[in-house]
């Protein structure tokens, strides 16, 4: 059986590879690493980049263990047993408003050899939605998913639509992607097949982001577009602080606060009652921030 | 007995008076008003200023009624009856980082003539804590409270310390002030005495802010101080989106979102792991963001 140590090692390597690729993409910024230890057991490697094109990016690895806090055990419907959890988490905020914000997470949780699961996903939050990018992104994810199980993409695409939703704004955080949790060993799956899928998701990050970055990073942008980017980042903050379960989990369990909140954008604005002009690119974007668009089924 | 209509009218006048004073203080900005109606009953007057010194300020009045949503009825331990609620809510974000953010709220809630209460408070969030300002502010609040009941200040000051606390940062939002809720007609109080106190709190806003504004608004500031202001505003956002009950209540009950989130600052930054220099003004401020400082008992 694949041991937690194998998964941990693979996640560490994934972090290394992604950091290397992102430094190459940025061409200037270098990741700064903070090693941290968790008082209850384990720790992590937080890596932050402030580059010429990636304004603020975090690529975090952690592997923690200990006694499951009662509150979380209850929420997960588990006994307050010893747990192990490891994962890689990424959020990148670009300088150029035409390049989207990207988020990826892959994680593994284990109580014992019978009680374990994988979770994760990739989703994209464009400041300006480009339909060809959205189609590319969803089709890429679909091809990754389809190699592992035909149900994965439709299920996990919908899961992302439902999860990355800002209820009080009645809009999605971005154009979605895939989100999954509690992929366990039931229904004919096992650690090997589940891990294989999670590895494919992790490996999809660099080609996806490279494409979205290269396609958009040379576009010029105006002050107005930069301002719109800062307003959209405000929505990102609203989602992460009000709804995101990972963030809430971290705040509730007194995790390393700077690693949890590395996802928050560098420069953000809130203005009162901004209404994009009729027919503007901003209005077009806003109209596309809805659930259940079949991006993968479109041809552009 | 003082009727809800009397309280409503007084709150409206308070909004008018405060807006007038703030326009005079700013010298340039004018409040823009949005009238809105609540589908379930009632509505409000949202007023926003973007001035030369007040970068973003909101002074909101609302008076709403209808059937108490079940979720809220449960939280308040009340039957799902007809309710009435009115209040004035203020948040001001100044341009100058030496001027503090100020927040005030006064509100009245009623089910029937036996089930009602007042709530509210004033608190201040300096980007840079000046001890003489903190002493002035707390002594002023103490003098307002002491005219009504000797227990008010100690009780409501502690309530503010406990309420305006960012647990995940282990720091207070600012230097506190007073916070109170459920001031009802029990223990020898009645509507008249409770309303009298709330009126005094409402009337304290202009003299308090005028003093804090005039004392600090002429100070020059550097780019570094402006950046620190934006980082401190980030903490303000964290508090309001993660902990503030009024905000949560508004988001949960699908209130008018732009009026609820008018409290969020105009321009905000999150940087990774900022640690103020030893002996800096920023470090001094951070050390003073703790509970239970007896500002009113100090002499400066």
What is the radius of gyration of chain A? 19 Å
Classified in CATH, the superfamily of chain A is: Coproporphyrinogen III oxidase, aerobic
CATH architecture title of chain A:
3-Layer(aba) Sandwich
What characteristic shape of chain A results from the CA principal axes?
A: globular
**Biggest sheet record of chain A:** 7 strands, antiparallel
Mean pLDDT of chain A: 95
Q: Give the fraction of residues assigned to helices of chain A.
A: 40-55%
Trace the largest sheet of chain A across and list its strands. Answer: 1-2-3-4-5-6-9
Oligomer: homodimer
Count of helices of chain A?
9
CATH class assignment of chain A: Alpha Beta
Distance between the termini of chain A: 43 Å
Share in β-strands of chain A: 25-35%
CATH topology of chain A: oxygen-dependent coproporphyrinogen oxidase
Unreliable spans of chain A are none
Return the string of H and E elements of chain A: HEEEHEEEHHEEEHHHHEH
Structural class determined from secondary elements of chain A: alpha+beta
- Biggest interface pair, counts: A-B, 30 and 30 residues
Task: List the domain count of chain A as a whole number.
Answer: 1
How many distinct beta strands of chain A?
10
């Amino acid at each position: 059986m694949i041991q937690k140590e194998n998964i941990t090692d693979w996640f560490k390597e994934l972090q290394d590879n992604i950091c290397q690729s992102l430094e190459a993409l940025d061409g200037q910024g270098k990741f700064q690493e903070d090693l941290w230890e968790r008082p209850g057991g384990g720790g992590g490697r937080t890596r932050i980049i402030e580059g010429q094109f990636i304004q603020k990016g975090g690529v975090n690895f952690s592997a923690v263990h200990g006694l499951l806090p009662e509150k979380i055990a209850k929420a997960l419907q588990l006994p307050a047993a010893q747990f192990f959890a490891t994962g890689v988490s990424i959020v990148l905020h670009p300088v150029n408003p035409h390049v989207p914000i990207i988020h990826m997470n892959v994680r593994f949780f284990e109580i014992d050899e019978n009680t374990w699961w994988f979770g994760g996903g990739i989703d994209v939050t464009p400041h300006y939605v480009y339909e060809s990018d959205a189609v590319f992104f969803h089709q890429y994810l679909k091809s990754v998913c389809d190699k592992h199980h035909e149900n994965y993409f439709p299920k996990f695409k919908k899961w992302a639509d439902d999860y990355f939703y800002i209820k009080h704004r009645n809009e999605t955080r971005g154009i979605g992607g895939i989100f999954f949790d509690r992929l366990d060993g039931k229904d004919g799956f096992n650690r090997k097949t589940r891990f294989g899928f999670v590895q494919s998701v992790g490996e999809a990050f660099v080609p996806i982001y490279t494409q979205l970055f290269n396609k958009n990073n040379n576009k010029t942008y105006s002050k107005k577009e930069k301002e719109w980017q800062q307003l959209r980042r405000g929505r990102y903050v609203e989602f992460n602080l009000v709804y995101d379960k990972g963030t809430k989990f971290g705040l509730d369990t007194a995790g390393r606060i700077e690693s949890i909140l590395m996802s928050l954008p560098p420069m953000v604005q809130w203005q009162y009652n901004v209404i994009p002009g009729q027919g503007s690119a901003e209005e077009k974007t806003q109209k596309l921030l809805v659930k259940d668009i079949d991006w993968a089924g479109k041809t552009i």
